[in-house]
Amino acid sequence: MNSIKRIFSNHLEKTISATKELNYKLNEIIKIGDFLKKKIIKKKKIFVYGNGGSYADGSHFVAELVSTYKKKNRKALPFIMLGSNLPSLTAWSNDNDYKTFLIREIDALSSEGDVLILISTSGGNIKTNQSINLLNLAKFSKKKKLSLISFLGKKEGAIGKFSNIKFHTNSNNTPIIQENQQIIFHLISEYLDKNFK
Hints:
Oligomer: single chain
Number of domains: 1
Distance between the termini: 50 Å
CATH class: Alpha Beta
């Protein structure tokens, strides 16, 4: 086997292993789905955010639920992608501080009892200056009395300490964590498809 095939094979083995592990965590995923279902029934909003690739994954997740997943006639669900208003993001970042924009946005849009979903492979780390904007948001969510659900890698980082519900992918490999989280978001989308008309 040449070197690139070995790299591909190794990646696929790790992906398959992480995916198989989800079989043992299905109750956790159902618990998250049920929690979101109850919040939607109570007319609460669900905000989603992640940095970089996690932003892309979160945006995909929101699209499945505001638009459609499999059920084409299902009602739209109240999911909102934070950071998607670029004029506001760039204005605040330019005039003030990028790391605090999410606080500004969630303060404007959220109400007590709403849900915040944070997606992070690192989990945030003050010492290494990782995902400080997420950490600031996680702390602020407690002040706003939001429920925080976090999807994290093996190391929960500081974000996990502020979370009401946290789901760990048992890996420190960023691409593997992201691929695993994408599957979880599809499973939750499936759950909500089954529970709403």
